[in-house]
Amino acid sequence: MKSSEIEKVLTNFREKYGIPDNFRFDKLSLILQLELVQKIKRKAKRYVIGALYGDSREVIYEFDLKREYMRLNGSVYKFMLKYQKVLTYLTNYHLALLLEKYNKAEDTVHMLMKVENVSKRSSLDEFYHILISLGENACFYCGKTLGNRAVVHVDHFIPWSFVQADHLWNLVLACRNCNISKRDQVAKPSFLNILIERNERLVNLKEDIVQRKFEMYRPEKLENLYEYSVVNGFDNLWTPNVDR
Predict the structure, then answer these.
(1) Is residue 198 within 8 Å of residue 143, measured between CB atoms?
(2) pTM for this structure?
(3) What is the pLDDT of residue 112?
(4) pLDDT at position 224
(5) In sequence order, what are the residues at sequence separation of 6 or more whose Cβ sits closer than 8 angstroms to the Cβ of residue 80?
(6) CA angle 240, 141, 167 (to 5 degrees)
(7) Three-state DSSP class for 135?
(8) ∠ at Cα 175 (173, 181), nearest 5°?
(9) Which residues contact 151 (CB under 8 A, 6 or more apart)?
(10) Which of 19, 151, 191, 200 has an alpha carbon 20 to 30 Å from 222's alpha carbon atom?
(11) What is the dihedral of CA 77, 185, 218, 89, to 10 degrees?
């Protein structure tokens, strides 16, 4: 099978610097990392961005190579959000197939598991302190007064496994029982309305930290993500044992 231009860059780069087959990118020196990124960037601009643009009949996005920007078609963007989970699985699967070509000892299942574990959840301590400082001292779901940090959980209202990002407008404080019970589920719609009201209250505080964290926030965005998460299989709507 003929190698792609990107594959040729990777192979030539490894041979040029005598890099072992099992050597990880993040273990390279910063100078070599930058050099490789620039090489890939040049090839992608020439062979990938324009080719995909043509193959997709100029529907998915528009681009400008000199200004180095791409802008998705609005309808395509909504489609990708709506079917995010399926698209992520498909992308990861094909990436695993590609990586398997260069990792002969690994089968597709193991490579897929490695690819899907690339996104790591970060510490949410920063958001805990922000929310506490803004007066969030009760469990978002059951209303129970929260105790010390050890028993307070920072919860992704729309599950992290769907959004895979930490946004203040999607984070709430919860007691241990509610967070463990909710797990990787979406709460019933009434809590979405409560969260939108909570976010509006935070925005109205005019705090600098909130303005920065909410820069890209709109209530409609949260509502769409909620709807899309349900479409993507998060349809077992959760409710706490004690209604708020």
Answers:
(1) no
(2) 0.67
(3) 67
(4) 92
(5) 72, 87
(6) 125
(7) coil
(8) 110
(9) 175, 176
(10) 151
(11) -20
